[in-house]
Write a structure and sequence with these properties.
It is built from 9 helices and 12 strands. It is α/β, with parallel strands linked by helices. It has 3 domains: 63 residues; 26 residues, no CATH class; 172 residues, SGNH hydrolase (Rossmann fold, 3-Layer(aba) Sandwich), CATH 3.40.50. The strands form 4 sheets. A 6-stranded mixed sheet has the order 6-7-5-8-9-10. A two-stranded antiparallel sheet has the order 1-2. Strand 6 and strand 7 form a beta hairpin. The longest helix has 49 residues.
């Protein structure tokens, strides 16, 4: 009996051991499946978040990425326009919002330009005795009159029409015998109408060539300087830009007073003067 009891006892122990072993194995399998599921989910999230690791096909299986490959996210390149709005790079290119417009605005900050002068203005374009009225040169409307002054200036502005220009550029005064009377007041009227003003200093004369038997004493260089002093003083007080044509001619090795009268310049047409003036307006 004792032997039988021991045998039964051993059998029970073996059965309990077998049952315990089976249960542990089942738990291990479930744990592995759970871990695999968690790892797969983590791998998918990692692929989406980091752009590397593994990806999935339509069946849901994990597919390892080839070495060196990556998932790239599309990025939109944004640029800030001068107006402060945001555009995509493609839009900015289509609308020209890359800074070129700003340069354009700087170049054309004077808008539509009206240029008025005396006979020296005519000489910049032709050796002619004819006055010019509204001729276009480099997009600038030009008026010029022989031996004329303030009255011609006013008539030219009226002829052009105040609605047809934004900036008035004046190169006059050589015929005024040093007097600036009336110019400052008229210029201020132009400014009060919202226009921009630019004035040019009167060019020099050569006293040795003046014809004093006629009216040469009206064109002595000291009168040109006197007029310029008054012009520059007025311009400084009214914050108006001055183009120093007098200084440019004095320094130029190629633009010189005409020995025929000491007032006008050679060589005609004096295109170098026009290039200098327009260069100052850019």
């Amino acid at each position: 009996m004792k032997i039988r009891g021991r045998i039964i006892y051993l059998i029970l122990i073996v059965c309990v051991a077998l049952v315990t072993a089976c249960g542990s194995r089942q738990t291990g399998i479930s744990g592995e499946e759970s871990a695999a599921g968690s790892e797969g989910a983590a791998g998918s999230e990692g692929a989406a978040g980091s752009g590397s690791g593994s990806s999935t096909d339509t069946s849901g299986k994990m597919i390892p990425l080839e070495e060196g490959s990556e998932i790239k996210e599309e990025k939109t390149d944004l640029s800030i326009t001068a107006e402060g709005t945001t555009e995509t790079a493609d839009t900015a290119g289509a609308t020209g919002g890359t800074g070129d417009d700003t340069a354009g605005e700087t170049k054309n900050r004077y808008g539509r330009i009206l240029f008025i002068g005396d006979s020296r203005t005519i000489d910049m374009f032709a050796d002619s005795d004819d006055n010019i009225y509204g001729d276009l040169h480099d997009g600038i409307s030009v008026y010029g009159g022989h031996g004329l002054g303030l009255d011609f200036l006013k008539e030219s502005v009226e002829s052009c029409g105040e609605d047809n220009f934004d900036t008035l550029v004046v190169w006059m005064g050589a015929n005024e015998r040093g007097s600036f009377n009336g110019y400052g007041e008229y210029y201020e009227e132009i400014l009060q109408k919202g226009k921009t003003m630019v004035v040019c200093t009167v060019g020099p004369t050569d006293d040795t060539y003046l014809h004093y038997e006629f009216d040469g004493d009206c064109y002595v260089n000291s009168l040109m300087q006197e007029y310029n002093d008054k012009l520059v003083s007025w311009a400084e007080q009214n914050e108006v830009r001055v183009i120093d044509v007098y200084g440019f001619i004095m320094d130029s090795p190629t633009v010189n007073p005409d020995p025929a009268d000491g007032v006008h310049y050679l060589p005609r047409p004096t295109t170098e003067l026009w290039s200098f003036i327009t260069g100052q307006l850019k």
